[in-house]
């Protein structure tokens, strides 16, 4: 009886953890919080494109470079599981498969991370956007 109860609790915990990895409570766009970023329209208005590929516990590049003041389409592609990107200093969030066109007006280096818990290596999912 104790074994059956223990297995049921472990199964419920596993289902809860897996459900948390695949869901996201905040899917809104929050560009422009610091005044240095503007959400600037549709893909047709972008003069540059940056694709960020995410897979369990890493991004495909340690840093991505864009030009200051240039409308840039940022796209997140989740190659496995569900991932999101949050750039706290710019108040920008990206959801997989939902590109955003932003114009970053301040040069600098902006760190970002995966904002959806995706497993034990989640904390290692960090990269940078360099604005020149």
What does this 3D model show about the protein?
- The protein has 132 residues and is α+β, with helices and mostly antiparallel strands.
- The chain is built from 1 helix and 10 strands.
- It has one helix at 2-21; strands at residues 37-39, 48-55, 58-59, 63-66, 72-78, 84-87, 92-95, 100-104, 108-114, 126-131.
- Strand 6 and strand 7 form a beta hairpin.
- The protein is elongated.
Largest sheet: 5 strands, mixed
Please tell me the overall pLDDT. Answer: 78
Radius of gyration, CA atoms, in whole angstroms: 18 Å
Note the run of SSEs as H and E: HEEEEEEEEEE
Instruction: Kindly report how far apart the N and C termini lie.
Output: 64 Å
- Total of helices: 1
Overall form: elongated
Residue fraction in strands: 35-45%
Describe the structure using short key phrases.
single chain, 132 residues, alpha+beta, 5-stranded mixed sheet, 1 helix
Question: What does this entry show, briefly?
Answer:
The protein has one helix and ten strands. With 132 residues, it is an alpha+beta fold.
